[in-house]
């Protein structure tokens, strides 16, 4: 027996030779009947063996057996067509969903005729395989209380609708500081951002200031979708060995978080007006503006502001990985072929020609990373894997899956020209997709491609 647990589920069908077990991750799994197995019992599934799952109770999926059939008492929800785009509403018309048992057969119209869209209802289902799932509704019990039913309120149609509206929702508003760098900084707002660079060029450090004056030419950078780049200046380091001929050396170990350990961590902070160095740069920028007739008050927030009261956040937004000093973060988006190329280009069979038609402006929006660039090499990888998968499907299955939403997960890294890109944000992103990790269907999670590294 292997030491790694594969999955678990409950037994729904058995005969003298085989058993069928329903699992959340993989649907129905068929295995050899090893004897002493019972319907409606939860089992751990190892390499090729089953073991009863000891001391396990799932009150959100209560099981029992009657006359050789497996029943379950669960919560379920149906779509509210008024809040969905027309095509999504049509796609999921009369659908009934439970997070554990997925799509439910409402062939007797019990749900359709009596339940309003978005209402969560307690029901009884029985194991009865059908074209879109494995369970059929046999009884409505009562409308479930709102409290405790939230896990049902992200069905596939809601996720698909949300994913479609994400670009519009996550696009920074014109009055956001990341877009309008000349707005007044709000000192009362607390932000959470990720440190994308531990030590990089500090644009608030005037070029003509000597190091012996205690000016720090580098700083750390935090990123949030609303503020964009925020300088995190090392202010509490004490110089050692300062002489008139030798620049100050800062004892980074006295900092609350060592500089080389900052990258990839999430921090809470507020943004405040400039430190001493930024004020010097601000005066310099003002004098340059005067010579060109520009408004002397217009100094970018990146120059005049910095992060204060920085504290590490334990409850991280996203897991990060630091490789070679560079932060890597997982990000995902809903696949849309038009995002990468025109319909005419997609009809080309010769990739030498088709490659020329791939968009150089492909991107998606992430809740934590803002705009993420997807360059042609990554676009080509995504398209090829999805097309290869579809070509391997049987005609009937291909037709069924043709309109199913597909999720693409990538590893995002900081763009090497992140400072330059920020000058034109949000027309250019701070992050880019480095490699494709996983491509799968939104409903059910069936894998289309998975990176093996």
UniProtKB/TrEMBL annotation:
Give the highest taxon in the source lineage: Eukaryota
Q: Which InterPro entries match?
A: DUF7037, DUF7038, DUF7039, DUF7040
Where does the DUF7039 domain lie?
193-313
- DUF7037 domain span: 7-47
Please report the stretch or stretches of sequence annotated as the DUF7040 domain: 327-442
Q: Where is the DUF7038 domain?
A: 67-160
A Pfam family the protein falls into: DUF7037
Recorded protein name is Uncharacterized protein
